[in-house]
Write a structure and sequence with these properties.
The complex is a heterodimer of chains A (341) and B (161). Chain A is an alpha+beta fold. In chain A, 47% of the residues lie in helices and 16% in strands. In chain A, the strands form 2 sheets. In chain A, strands 2-3-4-5-1-8-10-9 form an 8-stranded antiparallel beta sheet. Classes of the chains: A alpha+beta (341), B mainly alpha (161). The structure holds zinc ion (2 copies).
């Protein structure tokens, strides 16, 4: 499958992600005025929208790669790459720059979704960049808007500004220190939405969480940004405290867990995605706090992406049988970890 | 309800719901016509689902029914927002704590701030590009920074735009 060739590399923002705040994102959704939303359009109508948007994007931005999502495996692959999500439509079209930090998705649940993603805690930057791009797009298109509801979107969770700001956080300290219950209780009360590693409808695993702004009505864009920044700051501090606590009071226990995880990753012959994710996550933590005998974090991040089902299949031209998946995953881990020594 | 067999004979498909009362306790049985007739009162003929459904309001533009909007929290087109305006306001109130878009903002008002943030980032990238001797990238970044400077200057001289 030739399309995979353009997505052979691990996106830089993922590979060199920040330590506790892995990445930041700003996303706007918009629909073209006077047109039904993608879910209720027939293919010809969707194609008309695609052409219209595509031509404008071509003139606005350069060096882009495009891909049409017409199979389940593609949808999964780009969900693992954090471009689509579990709620995405079956006929989205992706327009993304080489490093996949600037992405336009056409005909997902809305006509247009603009996503700016960057590594680390850079909410200001992604937000400014996204607004900058929206300004250019507003000169090109008339978007569906009314005085009562603001920008009209297919999901009522986006109605109004259509903006969502989010961060992906890696918080093993909080999970290991059993601070989770306390934190989750706090997050439930905060004006944010808590999600798993792959965003919408995904479970929390691998010590990753995604938190994002909740309100798109009655709140200014700047206020959404501030609300999220406050929650992130509080989480960041708790995570740092938890890490210090673990290192001070349970260092040997942690070293034990890390050694066991390394042993499994380096010697397993069959390993599921969830198990591999769990062990890689512990090893990633160890790498961040400077433990000896664990791989470089960049390699771990790379592995975190390529052990996921669709990416693993992609390495085998999507000809991998279900029963061979866990065997090939173990093989990949052994080989890539060995290469590092 | 489909593919279910009669709970008495177990042979014929169940088509009737029968409420059995034994010592004051109610129990629901699914029976075939034959077995149901042998029982006393408490019969209720099962109505096929399509018929039992109430007539629903749908959007004249895209055909999306109100029940879908309520359960999926999604609409099918901009017209849905007019057709279901009252219901959507209720849903938004629950979902977002607000039912209308009260903060009307113009993206233009924040342009200067955004350009300064972006310029700052581009400058950092430029330093890195120079450091790693990627001169092609450095040249491109310089162009972009110049472009932003021009725009900032223009905005500065046109504060009301
Ligand atoms: Zn019977
Ligand atoms: Zn409609």
């Amino acid at each position: 499958m030739a399309w995979v060739e353009s997505f052979r590399l691990t996106p830089v923002w993922w590979q060199s992600q920040g330590k506790i705040v892995a990445s930041s994102r700003a996303r706007f959704v918009r629909n073209l005025e006077g047109k039904k939303f993608p879910d209720t359009l027939v293919k010809e109508e969707r194609d008309t929208i695609l052409n219209e948007v595509n031509i404008s994007l071509d003139t606005l931005v350069r060096d882009f790669k495009t891909i049409s999502i017409d199979t389940g495996i593609k949808k999964e692959f780009f969900t693992e790459r954090h471009i689509l999500n579990r709620e995405s439509s079956d006929f989205a079209f992706i327009f993304t720059n080489e490093v996949e930090e600037e992405t336009y998705i056409i005909n997902d649940r809305d006509h247009l979704r603009v996503q700016i993603t960057m590594p680390g805690l850079v909410l200001d930057e992604v937000f400014s960049m996204a607004r900058h791009r929206m300004r250019a797009l507003e000169r090109e298109f008339n978007f569906s808007y009314n005085e009562t509801f603001g920008y009209l979107t297919s999901s009522l969770t986006n109605t109004g500004t259509g903006l969502r700001l989010s961060v992906l956080m890696f918080i093993p300290g909080i999970f290991l220190a059993r601070e989770t219950e306390k934190i989750l209780a706090l997050l439930v009360k905060a004006p944010i939405v808590l999600r798993g590693l792959y965003g919408e409808k995904s479970e929390i695993k691998g010590n990753f969480i995604q938190i994002s702004t909740k309100f798109t009505l009655g709140v200014s864009l700047e206020d959404s940004l501030r609300m999220l920044q406050e929650v992130v700051k509080a989480l960041l501090e708790t995570e740092k405290r938890s890490r210090d606590m673990i290192l001070a009071s349970a260092r040997v226990e942690l070293e034990d867990r890390v050694s066991r995880s390394m042993a499994i990753l380096e010697s397993a012959r069959i390993i599921s995605f969830d198990e591999a994710l769990e062990h890689l996550s512990i090893v990633k933590f160890a790498s961040q706090i400077g433990f000896e005998g664990v791989p470089d974090e960049n390699l771990i991040n790379k592995l975190l992406l390529w052990i996921s089902p669709a990416h693993l299949s992609a390495l085998y031209s999507f000809e991998l049988k279900d029963e061979d998946m866990d065997i090939k995953r173990a093989e990949l881990l052994r080989n890539w970890l060995k290469e590092e020594d | 309800m489909q593919n279910r067999y009669c709970e008495i004979c177990g042979e014929r498909p169940a088509e009737i719901e029968y409420i059995e009362v034994i010592r004051g306790k109610k129990r629901l049985l699914h029976l075939c016509k034959v077995c149901a007739e042998k029982q006393a009162n408490g019969l209720r003929i099962l109505v096929p689902e399509e018929e039992s459904e109430k007539i629903e309001i749908t959007c004249p533009e895209c055909g999306t029914p109100l029940s879908y909007v309520k359960t999926a929290l999604r609409v099918g087109c901009p017209v849905c927002y007019n057709v279901f305006e009252g219901e959507i306001k209720d849903l938004l109130k629950k979902l977002q704590g607000s039912s209308t878009f009260s903060v009307h903002e113009d993206l233009k008002s924040s342009e200067e701030k955004d350009l300064i943030v972006i310029k700052h980032r581009l400058k950092k990238e430029l330093e890195k590009a120079v450091e790693s001797e990627d001169f092609e990238k450095a040249a491109r970044l310089r162009d972009e920074i110049n472009e932003i400077d021009r725009r900032l200057k223009w905005l500065g001289s046109n504060p009301l735009d």
